[in-house]
């Protein structure tokens, strides 16, 4: 899952741009998730879920044709991305806000070192959007693993990220994305090299096999360990 941010000051068209990017990617057949960052919290006061929250619960879940989670605590970006990865096989995650994140972004106003384009969402022409989508595909990248393993040809994950946003590594991707197993401690993803992933996967699957689960077609295993 590649991550692309949309940053900019208030009322500069961030949501307009997110909507245009998402529509285009979805039209091309990609599976897309979005994440919206806000400093002010969300207003659900007039909704049933808001009333549940007001009563003091820590988590409200809305269940129907769609599912909605309202969690009464802040989550850091890595934790959010890790959770989104668990929810589905998305090709792109488009993030509105989070201007300090180490991922490629499109800016509607002030740029930073991870900005790959500055655009005016309100005057963006169709051909400019097409070109923007190609840039996003080439310069965005997955959750940084922090392994600094050099398998991508760069000395560190940060060097890899800078090369991507500067357009010097369009065809290169991180070679150490988790393929077999994802470990999260206190909600935060923990980088594991392929050997450790293989070791954990085979150990857990071996234990499950010993439980006599042969009638179940096992595609994914989720194991949560509480340490108290
Ligand atoms: S392959 Fe991935 S984890 Fe290894 S240095 Fe490159 S970006 Fe970092």
Automatic annotation (TrEMBL):
The gene is mobB. NCBIfam families: mobB, PRK14494.1-2. GO terms for biological process: Mo-molybdopterin cofactor biosynthetic process. This is Molybdopterin-guanine dinucleotide biosynthesis protein B. It comes from Thermoanaerobacter kivui (Acetogenium kivui). One of its GO terms (molecular function) is metal ion binding. The keyword Membrane does not apply. Residues 131-192 form the 4Fe-4S domain. Pfam families: FeS, MobB. Keywords: 4Fe-4S, Iron, Iron-sulfur, Metal-binding.
């Amino acid at each position: 899952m590649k991550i692309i941010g949309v940053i900019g000051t208030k009322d500069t068209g961030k949501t307009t741009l997110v909507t245009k990017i998402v529509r285009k990617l979805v039209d091309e057949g990609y599976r897309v998730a979005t994440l919206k960052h806000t400093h002010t919290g969300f207003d659900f006061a007039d909704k049933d879920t808001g009333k549940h929250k007001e009563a003091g619960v820590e988590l409200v879940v809305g269940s129907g044709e769609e599912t909605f989670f309202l969690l009464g605590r802040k989550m850091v970006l890595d934790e959010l991305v890790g959770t989104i990865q668990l929810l589905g096989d998305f090709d792109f995650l488009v993030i509105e806000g989070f201007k300090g994140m180490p991922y490629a972004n499109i800016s509607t106003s002030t740029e930073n070192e991870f900005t790959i384009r500055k655009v005016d969402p309100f005057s963006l022409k169709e051909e400019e959007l097409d070109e923007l989508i190609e840039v996003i595909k080439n310069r965005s990248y997955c959750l940084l693993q922090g392994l600094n393993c050099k398998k991508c040809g760069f000395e560190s994950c940060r060097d890899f990220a800078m090369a991507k946003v500067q357009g010097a590594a369009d065809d290169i991707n991180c070679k150490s994305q988790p393929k077999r197993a994802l470990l999260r401690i206190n909600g935060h993803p923990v980088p594991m090299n392929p050997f450790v992933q293989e070791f954990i996967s085979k150990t857990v699957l071996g234990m499950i096999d010993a439980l006599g689960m042969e009638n179940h077609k096992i595609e994914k295993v989720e194991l949560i360990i509480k340490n108290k």
